Amino acid sequence: MANTTALAFFIFAQGKYNTLIFMDKKLEILQSKLAEAKLGGGQNRMDAQHKKGKLTARERVHFLLDENSFEEIGALVTHRSTDFGMAEQQFLGDGVVTGYGTINGRLVYVFAQDFTVFGGSLSETHAEKICKVMDLAVKNGAPLIGLNDSGGARIQEGVNSLGGYADIFYRNVQASGVIPQISAIMGPCAGGAVYSPAMTDFIMMVEGSSYMFVTGPNVVKTVTNEEVTSEELGGASTHASKSGVTHLTASNDMDCIFKLKKLLSYIPQNCADKAPTLPYELGDEYRDLLNSIIPENANHPYDIKAVIAGITDAESFFEIHEQYAENIVVGFARLAGRSIGIVANQPMNLAGVLDVNSSKKAARFVRFCDCFNIPLLVLEDVPGFLPGTDQEWNAIITNGAKLLYAFSEATVPRITVITRKAYGGAYDVMNSKHIGADMNFAWPGAEIAVMGAKGASEIIFKKEIDAAADPAAKLAEKERQYADTFANPYRAAARGFIDEVIQPRDTRRKLIKAFAMLENKAVARPKRKHGNVPL
């Protein structure tokens, strides 16, 4: 009996030992494959990436996400192509790292294209991996971050790769306004690859190592005979200052990652959420500096960013599109710890007029804030729309209407402060009471009128001025008369178009209270499929 028991135990132990050996071998195979996946296109190509001053895809993900939070999806995926010798060129992960993790404890989904594998080119399976995390991001209501570094479609796959791009484009549109989508261009992005970032909420580019264009310099030279470099055609500075395609630029990969994290701190997880609030202890909140910002001469400029700094929490303003259409300033800030979006005319540039580019810039920002429940503060000092053939021929009518539409459509809390000028149709467009603003304040020196005193006087009093012995003196007299009568905030306040004329030093305190009052604002809209934005 004892021998039988001992034999049984021996058989059991031997079986367990064999099982462990079997599992060890299986685990060894798994670890080998995972290690191979982490090498991407190999150490030589990773070294080449570093020599260009660029991080690898996995390094970018590592520095972007919280320590040990990344969970990879699809590390062992390979392409299915067999043409042009592709069957012999297999890399685990197929040129893109995908998965999820956290940034400052908040869930995000991420994909990072790996330039060391086929130049980061997009294949059918590469696209499927991206689509998988996009679907998960929408289902679970979390931001999607794309770290783009790709030579474009994988030409060996033909239409399969083009279909993959289209699958991504479709999901970009379905996710729009549902979850925040952020694209960081950290290398080449050309051809069809540019359209996915273009449909995301924010684009960031790295100076000197990233570019975006539909057709490259060689094609441009062939078709138009223009000589242009990749940097001139579609580099970060070009798209930041000329086209407005990119919202933020960074000096290197790490700076890009830092700015991306900062941007995320102002925005919510999804359209049903609210942006994170930071702890804040209220004081008296008066800012005496604001009383001395506006020049005595109404034609002298001042920096609206000084007003922003005087109103918002210390060093909280995060500007968007800083180098594009500088006559208007947009960005995020905090007011008593709460995230707000700011749209402000900039008198330092073109006197703060509205033109084609500033209207598009502001409209896009307003729509984003409205999508994601971020209250809007408008600081208004606008002499009107920029006149001229260039503006008219480039559709200032349609483009100005974009900003008008964006404000009229927005249902988030909306507050306007008129710091100085509010003339003509631009008064209406800049979040006036008439298009749904919740609270409208004006500083005592505000001028709210159809046009400036000089232009108005030349029209209204033309006969008197022409008949006067000294027309110049008569014009000056009529200017003062018009200004005293109309170029002030009190006519508008008398009609209820301005809720309150306030001291500049009291602005911050008033805004904190007003936004708190509007926190639970709810607006019912007519039932419809969607509006027809004047695109």
Describe the structure.
The chain has 3 domains: 34-264, Alpha-Beta Complex (2-enoyl-CoA Hydratase, Chain A, domain 1); 288-450 and 487-517, 2-enoyl-CoA Hydratase, Chain A, domain 1; 453-486, no CATH class. It is of the alpha/beta class. Helix 4 runs parallel beside helix 5 (159-175), helix 12 (356-371) runs parallel beside helix 14 (396-409) and helix 16 crosses helix 18. Strand 3, helix 4 (124-140) and strand 4 form a beta-alpha-beta unit. The N and C termini lie far apart (90 Å). It is built from 20 helices and 17 strands. The strands form 3 sheets. Strands 10, 11, 12, 13, 14, 15, 16 and 17 form an 8-stranded mixed beta sheet that branches.
Summarize the structure.
Helices cover 41% and strands 16% of the residues.
Individual helix count: 20
**In this structure, how is the largest beta sheet organized?**
8 strands, mixed
Q: What is the class of the largest domain in the CATH system?
A: Alpha Beta
* CATH topology group of the largest domain: 2-enoyl-CoA Hydratase, Chain A, domain 1
Considering the protein shown, what is the CATH homologous superfamily of the largest domain? 2-enoyl-CoA Hydratase, Chain A, domain 1
Distance between the termini: 90 Å
Estimated share of beta-strand residues: 15-25%
